[in-house]
Please model this.
Amino acid sequence: MADIPKPEELAKIDHTPPETPWMETPTVFRDGMWCYGAKPQNIEAVGMPNPREWSPKDEDWKLPDNWKEIVLDGMKDRLGKFRSFKLFMDICVRCGACADKCHYFIGSGDPKNMPVLRAELLRSLYRKNFTLGGKLFGKLAGGRDLTMDVFKELWYYMFQCSECRRCSVFCPYGIDTAEITMMGRELINLLGCNIDWIQAPVANCYRTGNHLGIQPHAYVSMIEFFCDEIEDVTGVRVNPTFNRKGAEILFITPSGDVFADPGTYTAMGYLMLFHYLESMGLDITWSTYASEGGNFGFFTSHEMAKRLNAKMYAEAKRLGVKWILGGECGHMWRVVHQYMDTFNGPADFLEEPVSPITGTKFENAKSTKMVHICEFTADLIRHNKLNLDPSRNDNLVVTFHDSCNPSRGMGFFEEPRYVIKNVCNNFYEMPSNTIREETFCCGSGAGLNAGENLELRMRGGLPRANAVKHVHEKHGVNMLACICAIDRAALPTLMEYWVPDVEVTGVHELVGNALILEGEKKRTTDLRGEPLPGMEDIEDEDL
Amino acid sequence: MSAQKSILYPLVAVLVLILIPVIGVKLGLSYFFAVVVPYAAFITFFGGILCKVINWARSPVPFRITTTCGQEKSFDWVKHNKFDNPFTNRQVLVRMALEVLCFRSLFRNLKMEMREGPKLAYGSAKWLWLGALAFHWSFLVILLRHMRFFAQPVPGFVDVLQNVDGFFELGIPQLFLTDAVIVAALTYLFLRRVVVPQIRYISLPSDYFPLYVLFGLVLSGIGMRYFFRVDIVKVKELAMSLVTLKPAVPDGIGTLFYVHLFMLSVLFAYFPFSKLAHMAGVFLSPTRNLANNSRAKRHINPWNYPVKVHTYEEYEEEFREKMKEVGLPVEKE
Amino acid sequence: MTLRDLLIKRKDDIVKEWFDLVLEAYPDESKDFFRKQQNRFANPMGHNIREGISGLYDVIVDHGCDSEKAAPFLDQIIRIRAIQEFPPSVALAFVLEFKELVRREVSAGHEELSEEVNKLEQNLDKLALQAFDVYMGCRERIFELRVNELRNLMFGALERANLVSFPAEGEKEVKENKI
Model:
């Protein structure tokens, strides 16, 4: 027995990293933690630099000879354009308040996932190349040279940040890692090193109007397919219109709602709501050209975000609508709320949004002229305009996941809760340090919801899942509601791994279930076709 | 740079810096250390901070990227969290005041619940807020107390401040509360950098250096007041001569005073070129000092430029036939 | 005194040591956080591993490593470790490491219990094999989810409707029916 190492010793083999400082600890690309590189045709499609076949695992990333110059010039350019960037490079005191606020750090323990260190990766380059101290004293002043290894490390960790901004809530100077990651990604894109999970949606969105590359006729067929399903469940035929000139309102939602479960049920909820309001004076149209609310350009560069976002106003103008209504989506709403008017405004061809049903003026949207559907619906409920039967959601015990972007980029907390509480009878909050402005990311935001980086996503999503598990065990929660398309795509997988009994829904799917349409048949199933407990019985008695 | 080196190198540097005035004064360079160095340091400080702020301000704020930490302004019937999610500039002022005066964001670390295990094991987060607050406020009070050296007659508020600070009336000379607090706070801020592995890992030499300088400054000050008395009358004479721009160096001020003055000068001169500039920077932080009203009021990006977009016409050109097939209206038949 | 009595008496210390052993595999910079942050929502990993270890301890002591009773606690710990890039030899070592902890307790003045320890070690070997099953289950789940996600969530719907088109290499106009 003597020469067999004790298990205790075995476990210790080399997994505690040597006590090397972070600048000297080389980054190893772990499988499951990174996404595939952008394909050349997707880079070419939008005219971005350096399209070529490459893989992040390759030794040679096939960068142009002057790549360092490109990165440093790019940095200089951005330091001059963004006060946030310049300031955040200068004023961090490394107090560590942010360190344990990042879901990727909490779930993995990788020190370079501490927001402060993620930013230091870029800051060390800034010091070395743009400050006197760094130029003179180098490492002593926290500076380091740009090498290929440093660039790869930067790449690895810029794509391990979901730009959720949780750290920025706790920073005494408001340093926002999302700003830093966005700059890092812009620099990375100057060399054509985006990940394909972002680049492909960007290319698709540019051409077809949405991330999935859905062509106009397909988009229409898919929604007609929903109309069939709605008819099956309710007996009522809804008739949406597309690209219709002269409509009062243009509706834009992320394409995930149209093509990815369970977002599709949320789309059905929208359709039913619009149908319900038609007789009350709602005049709304969908668009196939601006068929994407989400904006993966935002995960690429400000310029790309603007190029994709431009379609919203362009289409609103072409159709001659008065204002725009937006579906449930996270980063779409960050862009709409904080960027769109600045990017592509002023929207002087539109009118200040007024609800045609209640007459409510949406004062907080009077310049951008775009209203969130949860605002719109909350206002309807407040004015008693909806005939609702919340008991049709009685099979659900619901909790609400605040999506990062509407939370920390808008402060959108009460509106969706108000809607949920009016369409559901069983609602429980998760613990207070995991919701609202302190909400935990789904772990897959900012274009990181690929398949190849599933381990990263499961780790990053652990804090969220852990809180869901708590309410699941305590209150029997079985449905996680959210207002983000990436959430709806990513959370089901997260739940399946961590809390298998909990499903995921959009808020308007719950609305669709509760909404009593005129002339509908007795509902025996919800929108997913699952039987409603108790409702079959009533039918039996009727017979 | 290893943690040990990061901790040690700046310490050596500061020790050397302390020796400089000690030797210098012995060599008869007291004019240099009493007049030239402080003037130079103050010019560097104000000039440097000014340049820094101008430099920051020269970069525009293209987008309104407020970090919202509470309910936005919405309908009348939804309670708006005015100070964590300001809508007007006045509300922004309150938010900034809370941030700058109370360290509101750091305070968020306090919110903890459902602890398990021994209660004392947790809590570094709230200590950070307390430590930081204690340090910054006592530094400010001490600075203001020093006004008595620079003004004749001594302004009333300085007397009041001094009386409050010496409230406990312990010892002779009277112990100032802030002296004790600042030493404790500095010690805490230093120890957590050294002891907490996470913080040690992220700390650079430039994080330790100002701490050492502050230690030097504070300890030399305390030393002068409580242990090795220097001639206060002469110190005031010097201070007044500096303020009135008629510098004259009285003889026989203790060496310790020169150390104190030199540490202050080092701190001030170092300030604008280091992370200490956060003092000015916090006021410019776009995630904090902007109202979250970007949907109600258009924010202008000064360098906004036209970009290439995929127009509807190009789109219809590509998909016209398919669009017609499903009855989508088209512009051109 | 039986081994059981000893282990019940020493539970707090041994569990703490065991927990620290599990954390050995993480970098120093984060170990401290996992150990000290007591809020279960701010530190889900530390919380779950601590709870799992403690529960497992009771099963080992009271139920002779009963596999049914051990399952939820093994799952609680291993589900996390399975997505943290540890090979199974590291991710699962904590089960066997427990032997060492017991040996140490016994050698400190309770040598008469070594017969009982042998029995316990046999049970722990079984537990280790069970742990391996759990680990494999989690890994398989990951692969399954990876495949399912692509197929069911997105392309399922698209394929059903035969509606996709991607820009393909060297091809400007994309054939509609091709996926």
